[in-house]
Write the structure tokens for this entry.
Amino acid sequence: MFKGILIEGSRGDQQVSLKSIDEAQLPEGDVTVDVAYSTLNYKDALAITGRAPIAKTYPMVPGIDLAGVVTESSNPDFKAGDEVVLNGWGVGEKHWGGLAQKARLSGDWLIPLQAPFTARQAMAIGTAGYTAMLCVIALEKHGVKPESGDILVTGATGGVGSVAVAILAKLGYSVTAVTGRKEEEAYLKSLGAKQIMDRAELSEPGKPLARETWAGAIDVAGGQVLANVCAGMKYQGVVAACGLAAGMDFPSTVAPFILRGVTLCGIDSVMAPKADRLYAWKRLAEDLSPELLDSMITEVAFDDAIDAASHLMDGKIRGRIVIPVAG
Ligand code: NDP
């Protein structure tokens, strides 16, 4: 038996609890992992609170991320004792996830724990941090350089936002951090933000084109915020869009794209190819300061993880949550 969070019931009528689960119930897979740490991402909080239909089948163990040690493997790439990390691939949505002491998975989804990170640090990064890195790589690929001008990061006190601010600042970019939490100004400056901007300035409908301000942007908000971000980009600016914290809609016009040559890059971490993941994790090891990563962490006991999901949805969590699930 092992401990795990279980979402039971059905869509619209789900019950979530920390349960003792029989190992015989684990899903199919060629690698079994003793999970050491997991985390809570925005998507996990949606799944646990039931605010969006993330769990595609019931019962479901949530958790789109895990870090742990292989105990059994018939996959040629992994053997017992290997330290591994999993991000996404529909785990925690369609396949039992990381918020349990054991997981059985396809070895094709796993990557080795990236040195020098510990399992705890890997989960402090988690999907949020790895997505932040994918966004930074997208800006780079499209030619945005520190000398190109200011970079905007929305949802800056959240998981993706905090890691994005820290990486960009370390790479020498001048970062404007957008937040609804003015009281976190000192935190954002400690991560390296040069300017702080009130989220309210981007939340209301604006003009199709605003003053040319940003050379690049990483947006976790979507909705009206993303529309205003696109409208305020410099000529040939680049926006990496990864989230929907403000909404799924996109009330923009084509003006930024056809009159300023703005590029809008969509970022998906869930199905990203393995080579992209390995490169992103290698870059995280190079470009994210471990001290700043530590300053982003709130550690939550496994017994308190369900409550923490509501706190995350209510915007009460800063940075990243890590959850020790072992033992
Ligand atoms: P967090 O909850 O940690 O952070 C979200 C942040 O968004 C909040 O902290 C808040 O920051 C800001 N925010 C909240 N509500 C609004 C609003 N109405 N308008 C503007 N900003 C708002 O979540 P994550 O960082 O883990 O994820 C952020 C988004 O990115 C989510 O939508 C998530 O689904 C998405 N995502 C997508 C991935 C992909 O593969 N495409 C992977 C990972 C995440 P502040 O208080 O500072 O304003």
